[in-house]
Write a structure and sequence with these properties.
Elements lengths: L1 H11 L3 H32 L1 H5 L4 H15 L5 H12 L4 H22 L2 H11 L2 H9 L1 H10 L5 H11 L3 H25 L3 H6 L5 H26 L1
Helix pairs in contact: 2-7, 2-10, 4-6, 5-11, 6-10, 6-11, 9-11, 9-13, 11-13
């Protein structure tokens, strides 16, 4: 952890152009790495489901503690973890999953806080004239975080980083994010529960059509809410 802090301090002391580069690189890492790592984890899960089903007591606690870091550091998407949880533990896994992804969101949030993102935001404001929009996100942070978490379009790790960069209050981020993630998480857990196998789910994601409709409904609701907030700010 000391190494991570010293690395972030070194990045913050860099010239502006290099700092912008590392801040954008951080967001790319948060978006791309989960897609790669979840494929590896998914293959292992398909090959060894009994290993996870046999965990109990301290072993189970260690698994979820590791899961916090895996999700918080963007080594795997929360949706994959929810699918996996539903398949292995069913509804019994919902509570530890919610606790794990909530703690993971704080981990990603505070790491991004250390990086600050001020150079990147200054660059975006100068190029795209979004200063008033970012101020509006900060002033209505609870609603924006909730809607961003609700939408399937916003990756977990990137949302953590961007909300930290914008300056969202940590307490509002935690509670709004936890509430916003619940519908998506329950949907993914239920999908995992209904799968004949993780391999079947992996190869046939289109097998549960009603889940697609629910995902679209969440997307529409989230988008409509963001449009409403934007128009409210404009007036």
């Amino acid at each position: 952890m000391k190494t991570d802090v010293s690395l972030l301090a070194h990045i913050n002391a860099m010239p502006i152009n290099r700092k912008i580069f590392f801040e954008f690189l951080y967001l790319i890492w948060m978006g791309a790495l989960p897609l790669v790592s979840s494929s590896i984890l998914g293959y292992y899960a398909i090959s060894n489901p009994s290993f996870f089903q046999s965990l109990e007591g301290l072993e189970l606690f260690v698994f979820w503690a590791v899961a916090v870091f895996i999700m918080g550091l963007a080594f795997s998407p929360t949706t994959f973890f929810a699918l996996f949880t539903g398949y292995i533990w069913g509804l019994n896994g919902v509570l530890p999953l919610v606790i794990a992804y909530s703690l993971a969101s704080l981990l990603g949030f505070f790491i991004a806080k250390q990086l600050k993102g001020d150079s990147m935001l200054a660059f975006l404001k100068s190029k795209f004239k979004i200063a008033s929009f970012l101020d509006q996100v900060q002033s209505h942070s609870f609603s924006w975080v909730f809607l961003a978490r609700l939408s399937p379009l916003f990756p977990f790790a990137i949302t953590n980083a961007m909300m930290a960069f914008v300056g969202v209050n940590a307490k509002k981020f935690f509670f709004a994010g936890t509430l916003g993630m619940l519908p998506r998480t329950l949907l993914a857990v239920w999908t995992g529960m209904q799968a004949k196998s993780i391999e079947y789910l992996w190869n046939n994601p289109q097998s549960a059509h009603w889940q697609d409709f629910v995902s679209i409904a969440l997307l529409v609701f989230s988008g409509a809410g963001m449009i409403y907030l934007g128009k409210k700010h404009a007036h």
